[in-house]
């Protein structure tokens, strides 16, 4: 391949994993780029200096690193939690939420370096390529995106491992354990290898954050999560910032086997993919947040917000974070969270997480109205008038259209035999009034 970009600088979104480590050397060797790597720590990078050294060892002329954990939680994770965004009702969008932030850091680095090109290590059949490309296009449409894994490198994971060894690039992946793993504070995603068969149970070595449920502590544990306007702010009465709060919940819930997701999801590019996720804190906080909302939001808001949550999750999953549609939905979500303040008590027990208590100073639940015991303040007689008015359309229709008259059981798909009067037990006689009219 021609080194047609000799002398140009390309800023590569660098994770330090197999794909991006190989991409550093390949961009230099095959295309002639001077490579600058850009790494944003969203909670899984660890030693940033070690990442810098590895990038340089892989062939980068410069390695930019940034601790972006607090930004990630404050401006990406918490808004998605407030929205209730779970893709296909299960996936808490850990990787999907991280990509727009990493793309923003990539664009900022390209501007600082005077580069006209940026690159990422996403494959041609994954979702992340869309997220990076769309985010860069929204933030800096003048930049050109290079995607070596999508075209040019054309390597299998086994070939990448061989390439890395030939170029003295240190990588953790092996041919024996070829999992593709992405992590940040909000979750861990694992795919490839034996996981590609949706019939096979995930091997134990897939999981790193969660205990096997049957090996978790026998004694259940409870934790109280406090929220202020939909944002988690404390555990068991101790105020915590976002990063340590999520880390603590990941550890506590994960120890009890809580947080595993095994699903076949629909990727944006049109294929189904078997995905394994570990997200203890994310699943617990979503569960707790919805429990608190059940106290303080009206029926209509809960109903409509569920639709917004689905739409919000779809747009995040599809890479549309930097869109006007997201801005509009986010404005509505923030409005719904004004009174989502209170506490939720969660219990973890051998792979399960359950809400066992909830309270709020803004609660719409009133014991005097809900109780059937002493102190009942509900006006039972008022129900008669309510039912009369509420049922008026049904009675009017029944009088004028007779939808449920003679023979109408067919409309309900109920067999005529099922509507017949039950036969009398053997040895008994029907009373005259019990005889069925023909």
Could you characterize what this model shows?
The strands form 3 sheets. A 5-stranded parallel beta sheet has the order 3-2-1-4-5, sandwiched between helices. A 5-stranded antiparallel beta sheet has the order 10-9-8-13-14. Strands 6-7-12-11 form a 4-stranded antiparallel beta sheet. The radius of gyration is 29 Å and the shape is elongated. Helix 1 crosses helix 6. Helix content is 38%, strand content 18%. It has 438 residues and is α/β, with parallel strands linked by helices. It is built from 13 helices and 14 strands. The protein folds into 2 domains: 153 residues, Rossmann fold (3-Layer(aba) Sandwich), CATH 3.40.50.620; 188 residues, Argininosuccinate synthetase, chain A, domain 2, CATH 3.90.1260.10.
CATH fold-level assignment of the largest domain:
Argininosuccinate synthetase, chain A, domain 2
Which CATH architecture of the largest domain? Alpha-Beta Complex
Helix content: 25-40%
* Spatial order of strands in the largest sheet: 3-2-1-4-5
Strand content: 15-25%
How much is the radius of gyration in Å? 29 Å
How are helices and strands ordered from N to C? EHEHEHHEHEHEEEEEHEEHHHEEHHH
Q: Tell me the distance between the termini.
A: 89 Å
Secondary structure elements and their pairing?
Elements: E1 9-13, H1 18-31, E2 34-41, H2 48-58, E3 62-67, H3 69-83, H4 94-113, E4 117-119, H5 128-139, E5 144-146, H6 157-166, E6 180-184, E7 187-191, E8 221-228, E9 231-235, E10 238-239, H7 242-255, E11 260-266, E12 272-278, H8 280-296, H9 299-317, H10 324-336, E13 342-349, E14 352-359, H11 367-370, H12 382-390, H13 392-401
Parallel strand pairs: 1-2, 1-4, 2-3, 4-5
Antiparallel strand pairs: 6-7, 7-12, 8-9, 8-13, 9-10, 11-12, 13-14
């Amino acid at each position: 391949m021609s080194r047609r970009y000799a002398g140009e600088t390309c800023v590569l979104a660098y994770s330090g994993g197999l794909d991006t480590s190989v991409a550093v050397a390949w961009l230099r060797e095959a295309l002639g780029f001077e490579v600058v790597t850009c790494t944003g720590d969203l909670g899984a990078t660890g030693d940033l200096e070690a990442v810098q050294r590895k990038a340089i060892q892989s062939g980068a002329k410069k390695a930019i690193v940034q601790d972006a954990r607090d930004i990630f939680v404050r401006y990406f994770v918490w808004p998605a939690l407030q929205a209730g965004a779970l893709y296909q009702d299960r996936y808490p969008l850990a990787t999907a939420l991280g990509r727009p932030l990493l793309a923003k850091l990539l664009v900022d680095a390209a501007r600082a370096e005077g580069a006209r090109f940026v690159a990422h290590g996403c494959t041609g059949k994954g979702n992340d390529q869309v997220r990076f490309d769309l985010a860069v296009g929204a933030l800096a449409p003048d930049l050109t995106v290079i995607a070596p894994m999508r075209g040019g490198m054309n390597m299998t994971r086994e070939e990448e491992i061989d390439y890395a060894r030939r170029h003295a690039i240190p990588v953790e992946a092996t041919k024996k354990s070829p999992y593709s793993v992405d992590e940040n504070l909000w979750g861990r995603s694992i795919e490839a290898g034996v996981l590609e068969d949706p019939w096979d149970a995930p091997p134990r070595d897939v999981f790193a954050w969660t205990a096997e449920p049957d090996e978790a502590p026998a004694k259940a544990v409870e934790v109280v999560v406090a929220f202020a306007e939909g944002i988690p702010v404390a555990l068991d009465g101790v105020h915590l910032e976002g990063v340590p709060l999520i880390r603590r919940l990941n550890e506590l819930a994960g120890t009890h086997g809580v947080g595993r997701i095994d699903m076949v999801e629909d990727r944006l590019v049109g294929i189904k993919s078997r995905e394994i996720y570990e997200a203890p804190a994310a699943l617990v906080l979503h569960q707790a947040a919805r429990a608190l909302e059940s106290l303080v939001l009206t029926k209509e808001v809960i109903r409509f917000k569920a639709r917004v949550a689905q739409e919000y999750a779809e747009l995040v999953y599809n890479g549309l974070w930097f869109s006007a549609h997201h801005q509009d939905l986010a404005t509505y979500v923030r409005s719904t969270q004004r009174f989502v303040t209170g506490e939720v008590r969660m219990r973890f027990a051998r792979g399960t997480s359950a809400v066992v208590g909830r309270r709020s100073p803004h609660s719409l639940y009133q014991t005097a109205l809900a109780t059937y015991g002493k102190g009942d303040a509900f006006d039972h007689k008022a129900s008669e008038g309510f039912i009369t008015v509420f049922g008026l359309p049904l009675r009017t229709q029944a009088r004028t259209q007779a939808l449920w008259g003679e023979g109408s059981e067919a409309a309900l798909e109920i067999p005529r035999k099922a509507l017949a009067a039950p036969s009398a037990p053997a040895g008994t006689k029907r009373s005259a009034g019990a005889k069925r009219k023909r």
